Amino acid sequence: MQHIDIKCLFEEAKYIGEKVTVCGWVRTSRESKTMAFAELNDGTSLKHLQIVIDRESLEYPATALRLGTALKVEGVVVEARQGGVEINAEVIEILGECPLDYPLQKKRHTLEFLRTIPHLRTRTNTFNAVFRVRSVMAGAIHKYFQTRNYTYVNAPIITGSDCEGAGEMFRVTTHPFNHEYKTEEEYYENDFFGKKAGLSVSGQLEGEVAAMAFGKIYTFGPSFRAENSNTPRHVAEFWHVEPEVAFAELPDIIEIAEDMIKTIIKDTMDACPEEIAFFDKHFEKGLIDKLNKILSDKFEVLDYTKAIEILKESDKEFVYPVEWGCDLQTEHERYITEEVFNKPVFIINYPKDIKSFYMKQNPDGKTVAATDLLVPGVGEIIGCSEREADLEKLLEAMKARGMREEDYTDYIELRKFGSVPHSGFGLGFERILMYVTGISNIRDLILYPRTVGNVR
Ligand code: 4AD
Ligand code: MG
């Protein structure tokens, strides 16, 4: 169908005075005796295009201007009195009728209500802005790595090894329900892969394989977590950005993470000024100032041990008691990022017992060279570490966690053949989108959120 993107009409003056065809959905309309006006949106821009209809010279179907109706409009582009452009309609054709029980009406709907209609919520201004920012930021992530000699690899989604530890993987099976098998081994042996398989929680282990050949790699794909966390920050299927860098130690990867976060935020702000202004107005007052401050300030780097001291010395009443060795809870993370520093904070050198087997053990024997990046309002957006390159120490850490060596033979061999220091991190894509849009529930940053008890 020959037509022009509405975005182009707003951006290119050459269309003024020209006759064009546009397509889109009616967002609002009003009719008087002699004139009618409709705002059309085709999804290419946050702004709607005003269609001006002279009722005395143009006839159109009675239902054409109903909310949600899909139209094709032919007309001349003219400068609008209030700035920008509009179209003086000459032909109006209905592409798709929209009856009066259309759930999206003129009023502002709550995000909770919109979650019940995921197939229609995309047609609101909020989701128009969310998904453009999501798309632009995905592009910015690829650009960041592509222009710095990283190779983009696609880690498998079905995997036989668990990266982050037991108890949170979705199983992949072709077995129907049955009681045929006596033992778990027998059950898995007879399954499709002849062993237990699941949906990957992280592409890291395969990312390390690639980094040991290509030096610098990144993955960008879905990861799956079956944990029963019904919070505004958890979904069972999320998009995961995972760079892995050979010859990088913890301070190097921290520098890369900070530079990447700042670069992709800047690129997104540059490409989506209207969307960011929209979020500032409707979701987080002061968002633009917050983002500019992120770009100009150095992120804080704080030792876990020091973080525990700060928490213990504070006069805040925490629900979860604080002791060296404990995992930081959301309330602790919020206190540190929001009240103490009010900026992104890398917490480094966590106790080894609360972290994963693959993290490099520090000389103190108690901590690992790992960091989480915590940000105000969201909490953890990045999990990061230098990897254990020493075979003996790696095996010892696996043994301590009851892991079977035969499940990780490829990973172990990387330490045998030409092992080098290397580091990487995982960025939760929806988590950084929460931070950049100020929208506080992760379910509103992904097309179809999958959470406990919720899939469609
Ligand atoms: O901290 P995590 O579990 O780290 C890893 O998976 C490492 N293997 C990454 C690596 O080093 N390559 O997860 C990394 C990030 C978290 O910081 C968070 O942003 C996001 O993934 N994430 C989730 N996002 C949404 N919903 C969930 N259930 C998430 N679980 C993790
Ligand atoms: Mg983590």
Quick gist of this model?
It is built from 14 helices and 15 strands. By secondary structure, it is α+β, with helices and mostly antiparallel strands. The relative contact order is 0.11.
Mind explaining what this structure looks like?
With 456 residues, this protein is of the alpha+beta class. It has 14 helices and 15 strands. The protein has helices spanning 6-11, 111-115, 118-121, 125-146, 184-189, 204-214, 250-271, 273-282, 287-296, 304-313, 330-341, 391-400, 409-416, 429-437; strands at 19-31, 35-41, 49-54, 70-79, 85-96, 151-152, 158-159, 198-199, 216-224, 237-246, 300-303, 345-351, 367-375, 379-386, 422-428. The strands form 3 sheets. It has an 8-stranded mixed sheet with strand order 6-9-10-15-14-13-12-11. It has a 5-stranded mixed β-barrel with strand order 1-2-3-5-4. Strand 4 (70-79) and strand 5 (85-96) form a beta hairpin. The two termini are 32 Å apart. The chain binds 4-amino-1,4-dioxobutan-2-aminium adenosine-5'-monophosphate and magnesium ion. The site of magnesium ion has 3 residues, from strand 14.
State mean pLDDT (0 to 100 scale).
96
Q: What is the count of DSSP helices, taking H or I runs of 4+ residues?
A: 14
Uncertain spans: none
The description of the largest β-sheet is: 8 strands, mixed
Distance between the termini: 32 Å
Structural class: alpha+beta
Computed Rg: 26 Å
Order of helices and strands: HEEEEEHHHEEHEHEEHHHEHHEEEHHEH
Principal-axes shape call: elongated
